[in-house]
Task: inverse folding
């Protein structure tokens, strides 16, 4: 009996010793883990996150046998679409990546139950290092599913080289660009001065309306619905519509940075991360080029003493894996990426804000750690905003993504159609002011009508 | 351990030679030999058929197989892309000629003609767009040997270069397209977004030696992996010439395969090894660069990779990082490329080590099972036989059968024989006891007779001494002379008397009746001239004394 027992024990020992290694819970170089990742932190020109990921792969990743394999650098809307296709198993869709960066809205698409709860792997002390507001955005119920890795706010970008020419002729200075009424006025003047060129592109009309209505003491969104009938909306819509219909605002889709390159526009509002895309020169149709100086200014305000801006930026999601090594690998990478040093390296090359309080203090105490001047300009603008602005996080509600996207489309479509009407009618000899006022009014009605459908 | 230290093989062998080997040891040795033999045969067969190889060899075999498939897939895909490029060129040539004919312009007059070149791009845009949709690629382009500004500091070529943006899948059906190179009006006309690295035209040195590259009848060129200007990407280009009606090369067109597209379209996963690192490499001056199917290795692989080969196994040196794998050269277009498949060295080592551990584990498990089996068989098969032998040896047979027919028959036979021998032994024992009793009795009688004899002897001696002088000499001589006349029977009776036996005892010894004894006595007396028993015994005693003395004097 004893012999039989000893035999069984020996056999069990041998089997567990020689076949149990694969059930290791931590990744190791001997049993490497590759995590595919889709992220939004990069343009077609440069991807600071890829640079940081390469650094991780060559350092800590190598120690643990973890490789972060970036399988896509794309836009947030493209990631939404791709994740939706993957989650619903659409033909031709790729398998869900192990890691992705996205806005909170995507969590519902992927399924909360499929996402790794970071708070199961981060200690309370580790989480306490994060900026509280940034962290709170990542909670879905009790679970932290979206880990902040970089946040942005919005700024006003200006092609100072071309603006200076305009300024010299018109006397309009950058001081007038601190408020939207000044910006709109300058845009209309620029349209006339440049013989029909757009001055400005507003990248997010949804944000414009949200912050504008806040400035007027109201709410743009209530109970998951846009409040276009609100008087405050009318107050923020009319100056915008007037300028856009007049021709001062570019209403085409696409990135502002590309239009900077052809001098189609000389200013835009957009994410601080847009600085990554800013060209350093303008290219003219005959292939001649002109170097430009780009500066960033604080996001324009709507009224005195009511400065505000959206802060935004998604976060890092990990798809929960049955292979615990993959979960551990994702956590090791996430912790590394959000360490002060690596987080600063990443965000300051991408135009984002760091997500830890200590990193934020370091950045705004000394801009010299930011390499490029146009990036430093952005952080100076943000520094001003942090002192006097209220930063708002967009509310998350059912269908938010679609409602936001529809709103952008509708605003552009309505204003573009109205602008064409305006050009046509004044070309036909109608009174420009009368036509403009009429089209501004009708544009609001049209927008409400489209949004109500 | 002490036992092992005391193990003395020569002594054991000597012992085996002289004393033989126990059935138990012999049995265990045979079983172990048999299992070892079978095991060796199985290992040999598994090895012969390649089923069981060392882990390292297995990895290499897997990589060999996968590499072959991988290289074929790459070749097929690039040839397919090249076929699309040739068709693309045909369509562009036709479109260009149509445009020039419609505009009544010779090709050379396009130079510095911004309006005409923009119009030409407008005319050819759909061709570029449609071919890009059809070909497996991340971008499509054409460039012509003309420019909007020949006075530009940097020599440029005019054309359209479209790129997919937001790539996340090999399928590009739903991807947006950006204008990377092309005129402003092309972007507007195609409702395209500008690529963030957009420029109007392309540098003339973008494609090396494209003018002369096709002189020797090369169908298409697959370029080395190069950095795409103003982007973080690298790409290869599959391109073919665009010719004018006089067969003069006036440009090139083709498709871009950027690192991301290569990575997404060339994934290779092995059941056992997981995701394999695949690469299409260009060799220059002994070092390699190229495209990898892994993002991280694409980042590393943009730098130089050194490959050292030994015994058909390639070691890939990425700075401090090393991979182990296989390579195969293939020809694409007119150039030779190296296809490689590999895994990180640490992973390779770990698999090999795991394999070795498993082999050792299996070996120990088999040995353990073997010994356990021997012990089991010994207990179940040999031990009962030995116990039975002991029982038989010590006659303690409990009658239980071994259930092994031959042994049961043998033991039954031995038992039967043993019982016969036992019976014989018993009878011999009885006989022995009887003989011993008889011997005791005889000894007793002898001792008693000896005692009597000694007594009689002393009496005779005494008598002889007393009556020595009384014996008549003539009678005694007569007695001596006539002794030889006695018959054997009578002589025997005479001797028995001399020995001291009584008449009755002599009759019993000889086995004759008393009357017969009397008859013999009468004859003996008569022959010896004695008249009484007393005289007879006196003469006999005298003779005995004389005989003894005579012997002593001799």
Result:
């Amino acid at each position: 009996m004893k012999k039989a027992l000893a035999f069984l024990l020996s056999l069990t020992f041998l089997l567990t010793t020689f076949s149990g290694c694969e059930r290791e819970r931590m990744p190791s170089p001997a049993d490497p883990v590759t995590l595919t990742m889709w992220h939004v932190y990069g343009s077609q020109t440069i991807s600071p996150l890829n640079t940081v990921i390469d650094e991780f792969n060559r350092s800590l990743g190598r120690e643990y046998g973890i490789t972060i394999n970036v399988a896509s650098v794309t836009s947030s809307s493209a990631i939404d679409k791709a994740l939706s296709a993957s989650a619903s198993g659409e033909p031709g869709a790729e398998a869900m990546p192990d890691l992705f960066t996205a806005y909170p809205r995507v969590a519902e698409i992927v399924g909360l139950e499929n996402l790794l709860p970071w708070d199961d792997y981060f200690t309370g002390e580790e989480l306490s290092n994060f900026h509280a507001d940034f962290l709170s955005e990542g909670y879905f119920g009790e679970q932290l599913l979206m880990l902040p890795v970089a946040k942005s706010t919005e700024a006003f970008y200006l092609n100072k080289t071309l603006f200076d020419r305009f300024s010299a002729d018109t006397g309009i200075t950058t001081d007038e660009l601190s408020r939207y009424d000044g910006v709109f006025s300058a845009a209309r003047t620029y349209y006339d001065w440049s013989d029909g060129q757009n001055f400005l592109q507003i990248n997010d009309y949804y944000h414009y309306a949200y912050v504008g209505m806040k400035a007027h003491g109201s709410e743009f969104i209530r109970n998951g619905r846009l409040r276009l009938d609100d008087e405050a909306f009318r107050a923020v819509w009319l100056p915008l519509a007037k300028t856009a219909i007049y021709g001062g605002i570019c209403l085409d889709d696409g990135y502002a940075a590309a239009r900077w390159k052809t001098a189609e526009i000389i200013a835009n509002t957009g994410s601080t991360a847009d600085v990554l895309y800013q060209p350093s020169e303008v290219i003219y149709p005959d292939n001649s080029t002109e170097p430009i100086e780009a500066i960033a200014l604080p996001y324009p305000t709507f009224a005195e003493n009511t400065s505000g801006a959206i802060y935004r930026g998604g976060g890092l999601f990990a798809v929960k894996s049955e292979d615990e090594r993959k979960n551990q690998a994702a956590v090791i990478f996430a912790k590394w990426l959000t360490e002060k040093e690596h987080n600063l390296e990443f965000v300051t090359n991408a135009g984002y804000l760091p997500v830890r309080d200590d990193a934020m203090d370091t950045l705004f105490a000394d801009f010299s750690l930011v390499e490029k001047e146009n990036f430093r300009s952005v952080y100076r603008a943000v520094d001003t905003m942090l002192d006097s602005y209220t930063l708002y996080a967009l509310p998350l509600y059912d269908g938010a993504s679609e409602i936001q996207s529809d709103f952008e489309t509708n605003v552009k479509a309505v204003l573009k159609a109205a602008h064409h009407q305006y050009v046509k009618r004044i070309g036909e000899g109608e009174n420009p002011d009368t036509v403009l006022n009429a089209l501004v009014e009708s544009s609001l009605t049209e927008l409400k009508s489209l949004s109500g459908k | 351990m002490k036992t092992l230290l005391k193990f003395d093989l020569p002594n054991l062998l000597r012992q085996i030679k002289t004393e033989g080997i126990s059935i138990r040891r012999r049995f265990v040795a045979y079983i172990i030999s048999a299992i070892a033999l079978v095991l060796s045969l199985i290992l040999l067969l598994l090895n012969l058929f390649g089923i069981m190889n060392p882990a390292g060899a297995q990895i290499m075999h897997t990589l060999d197989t996968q590499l072959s498939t991988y290289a074929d897939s790459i070749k097929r895909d690039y040839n397919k892309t090249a076929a699309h490029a040739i068709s693309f060129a045909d369509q562009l040539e036709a479109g260009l000629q149509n445009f020039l004919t419609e505009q009544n312009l010779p090709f050379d007059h396009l130079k510095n003609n911004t309006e005409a070149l923009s119009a030409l791009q407008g005319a050819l845009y759909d061709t570029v767009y449609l071919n890009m949709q059809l070909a497996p690629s991340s971008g499509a382009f054409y460039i012509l040997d003309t420019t909007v500004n020949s006075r530009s500091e940097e020599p440029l070529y005019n054309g359209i270069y479209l790129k997919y943006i937001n790539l996340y899948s090999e399928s590009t059906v739903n991807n947006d397209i950006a204008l990377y190179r092309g005129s402003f009006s092309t972007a507007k006309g195609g409702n395209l977004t500008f690529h963030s690295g957009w420029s109007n035209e392309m540098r003339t040195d973008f494609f090396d030696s494209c003018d002369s590259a096709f002189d020797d009848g090369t169908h298409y060129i697959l370029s080395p992996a190069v950095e795409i200007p103003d982007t973080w990407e690298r790409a290869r280009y599959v391109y073919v010439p665009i010719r004018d009606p006089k067969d003069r090369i006036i440009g090139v067109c083709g498709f871009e395969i950027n690192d991301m597209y290569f990575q997404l379209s060339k994934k290779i996963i092995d059941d056992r090894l997981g995701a394999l690192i695949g690469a299409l490499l260009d060799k220059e001056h002994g070092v390699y660069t190229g495209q990898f199917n892994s993002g991280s290795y694409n980042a590393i692989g943009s730098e130089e990779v050194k490959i050292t080969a030994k015994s058909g196994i390639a070691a890939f040196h990425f700075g401090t990082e090393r991979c182990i794998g296989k390579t195969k050269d293939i020809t694409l277009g007119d150039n030779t490329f190296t296809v490689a498949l590999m895994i990180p060295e640490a992973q390779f080592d770990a698999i090999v080590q795991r394999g070795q551990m498993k082999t050792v584990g299996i070996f120990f498990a088999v040995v353990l099972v073997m010994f356990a089996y021997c012990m089991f068989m010994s207990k179940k098969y040999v031990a009962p036989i030995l116990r039975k032998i002991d029982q038989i040896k010590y006659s303690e047979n409990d009658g239980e059968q071994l259930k092994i027919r031959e042994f049961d028959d043998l033991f039954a036979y031995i038992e039967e024989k043993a019982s016969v021998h036992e019976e014989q032994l018993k009878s011999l024992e009885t006989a022995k006891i009887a003989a011993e009793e008889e011997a005791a009795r005889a000894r007793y009688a002898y001792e008693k007779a000896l005692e009597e004899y000694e007594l009689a002897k002393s009496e005779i001696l005494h008598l002889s001494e007393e009556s020595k002088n009384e014996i008549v000499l003539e009678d005694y001589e007569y007695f001596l002379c006539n002794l030889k006349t006695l018959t054997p029977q009578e002589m025997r009776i005479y001797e028995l008397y001399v020995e001291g036996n009584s008449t009755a005892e002599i009759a019993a010894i000889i086995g004759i009746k008393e009357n017969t004894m009397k008859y013999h006595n009468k004859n003996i007396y008569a022959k010896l001239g004695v008249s009484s028993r007393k005289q007879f015994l006196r003469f006999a005693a005298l003779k005995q004394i004389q005989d003894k003395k005579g012997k002593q004097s001799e």
The CA atoms of residues 263 and 282 of chain A lie 6 Å apart.
